[in-house]
Amino acid sequence: MDDLDKLGLATASAKARKSYREGGIPIGxxxxxxxxxxxxxxxxxxxxxxxxxxxxxxxxxHAEIATLEDAGRLKADVYxxxxxxxxxxxxxxxxxxxxxxxxxxxVIGENKNFVGGEKLLKEHxxxxxxxxxxxxxxxxxxxxxxxxxxxxxxxxxxxxxx
Amino acid sequence: MDDLDKLGLATASAKARKSYREGGIPIGxxxxxxxxxxxxxxxxxxxxxxxxxxxxxxxxxHAEIATLEDAGRLKADVYxxxxxxxxxxxxxxxxxxxxxxxxxxxVIGENKNFVGGEKLLKEHxxxxxxxxxxxxxxxxxxxxxxxxxxxxxxxxxxxxxx
Lengths: 162, 162
Ligand SMILES: [Ca+2]
Ligand SMILES: [Ca+2]
Ligand SMILES: [Zn+2]
Ligand SMILES: [Zn+2]
What we know:
Two copies of one chain form a homodimer.
Chain A: H1 3-21, E1 28-33, E2 44-50, H2 63-71, H3 76-79, E3 82-88, H4 92-100, E4 105-110, H5 118-123, E5 127-130, H6 134-146, H7 148-156
Parallel strand pairs in A: 3-4, 4-5
Antiparallel strand pairs in A: 1-2, 1-3
Helix pairs in contact in A: 1-6, 6-7
């Protein structure tokens, strides 16, 4: 993995671990601006956050949505020069948010615990890269095993894991 | 329009007007529980809100997302017995949120000012009803005319209107 994606995914992963330590769903994300090249030297982390379903009792603050909130209101063309990093394959809502803001590139930590809107993203011309990160995968699997009731309600029933 | 849909759309419309009075984007929504029949006598408005892009400087609190937040965390099966009312055709993010929570029915005030994810909803078996409400249509058109810069940035560039 190149330096930019290493930074982006590590930033998202740190948020996932923070959420896990708080007893929350361990999914993190980061929105990284890089301009028209994928060069780390131009990169800015515009926002990063984690799923806040448990922490804020929120049905919509998934990692990617919370990250867009963390980044705040940006000019439309800024999004078009960013990559969204997320530790887990994005659900249909987060997929839609990525399409809404025309974010051209998504790097996914893992899609073993859940496969989301990757196909729809690709159909709309978004570049999708699955890193196959074992740390992301193991943390999510551990959470589902430790809190099966949360896994069942939050992940399975709401389409959030296979 | 039957009584249930009249109530739901009127509730969403009141929120759109509130947002307009606050100088915000005049889009409102309501999540109404009705059980397995579409009978008004069983109905409960679980949540209702409006777009809060201007008011809360939020990139993700569209009317439907704010409405899901207003309703709070619900059991997964509650969503499957609800209708989402929204004054304007839902964008890709809100479309994805409706699919995430498996809300089976969406009633749209108008789709003249913007056509969102109606096709995707239908492909996933969601019932989509467009009310063709002239009040919704006129309020949104007035806003776009009065605040073309907001219309341009928030609506057009982020895929929010044709
Ligand atoms: Ca942050
Ligand atoms: Ca409300
Ligand atoms: Zn999501
Ligand atoms: Zn929306």
